[in-house]
User: What shape does this take?
Amino acid sequence: MKVIIDLCVIPMGVGLSVSPYVAACQRVIEEAGLHHHMHAYGTNIEGDWDEVFAVVKRCHEVVHEMGAARINTTLKVGTRVDREQSMQDKIDSVTKKLGH
Assistant: This one.
């Protein structure tokens, strides 16, 4: 099953800046070869369910390995079985309706 997720991994107790941890998760996503788009408060990822959720697990492992004892993750998950739809398809649909 294909899935699109919005992932935000927040290490706790590591100080004010979390960018090193975000960068580590981005590397995990890139190494997995999944289509993704980082934004200001997370990352959209699309792909096969098992591959995407393996990346979520690996992000947690890496952030813990970096010294974060706790992680708070928010995750939005969308699946669709009537047709295939990419992240870009969703954006294009709204952009078209805006007349851009």
Observations:
- The chain has a mean pLDDT of 96.
